Amino acid sequence: MMARNTFCGSAAHAINRRGFLGGIAAAGAAVAADMTALNALAAPGVNGALKKTQKRIILLWLAGGASQLETWDPKPGAPTGGPFRSIQTDVPGLRISELMPKMAARMKTTCLIRGLNTKNGDHGSAAQTMMRGRRDEAALRYPDLGAVVAREMGRADSKVPDYVTFYTQTEGRSMAPGDAGFLGSRYAPMELTTSNYPEFIKKLDGITDLDHQERGELRDLLGKQFGRGRSSETMSSQNEAYQRVRGIMASEKLFDITQEPQKVRDRYGPTQFGEQVLIARRLVEAGVPFVRVGRAWWDSHGQNFETHQEMVPELDHVMATLIDDLGERGMLDDVMVITLSEFGRTPGINASLGRDHFASAWSSTITGCGIKRGSVYGKTDPKGQTVVSEEADAGSLFATIYSALGLDPDKNYQVGSRPIPLVNPGVHPISAVLQ
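That's the DUF1501 domain-containing protein sequence above. Prediction below.
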């Protein structure tokens, strides 16, 4: 399979709105977010404050199962190694596929985990496991990584979304939706599946920016008057939801890559994946805790080598560009970049010159944010069939991610009377790759 390049009232209560609001503004009432509020997020002082207080993640989700043999763990010369050579990286003794020359020059920034054994080769349940770090229980749906990071790293006063996903291809989309599980819809993602731009966040063309701001001010005033002497969870929740919606409306420019200099856009390239990763960088720079960018069509049961020859260089270019961009902006210590699939691909080559599902010995990478750079964890045998040392599973991978973010993997959420830790009991982070 080849890759495919998403109050009304009575007259007696009428008000001179502009005069009324002008008086309130003079009295020092708080103003709701206006449609240009997020421009300030690009200011160095704000960006610096964010970097001191908030960790963020960009997850590059390689949907369908990218082959470790054509990326991070090549086996040239083995009967099932395939046609591609390995090349030396900037980490002594570490070689990766020749399809990734740009990342070969940047492996000193990155941790490579080669010993994943996740024991699940089914697309749907494996994708859920690799997004949650464990399998759901019959009566308990766990939150995915994005929802946990949104819950732990999101800020109550944030005017940007807490969790955004891009998945604009059709393959595998239904198997990998964002899911807040028992954390509830407050931490569910903004999912972009048809374009790079959120639907329904633009104000109507007939409403000016001033009208939009003044309507917010009027609502705030009347709401404060109504709320005096009243205490209600429903009212507080409605107010919080309203302010977040206004903030999301104010964040629309973050999704517009024309706001970036042309030279930056050219660096990422014109592909949909490149543009979405650029938007992801814009979002985390503005304080979004978690962004997942899905890139599908890795499910190479047929024509594996042609598929990877087309897709791996794109991953190599976009990932290297993102790492460089984050580094130049001083963000790499605070933004974690992860590459992850639901599983890898078989060392064996089938009759269609493809590789099938394989969860016994595959690879992932983590870059930045509390992870030891230039480290390698795990080793597979010469044919890539099994992990021969330093095996890791989904739980230990997630415990490592949480620890690198400064989160205690043993922290408990309370679901009814039951305490639920971030990872299953007895699961530990991979200390060898933590700074």
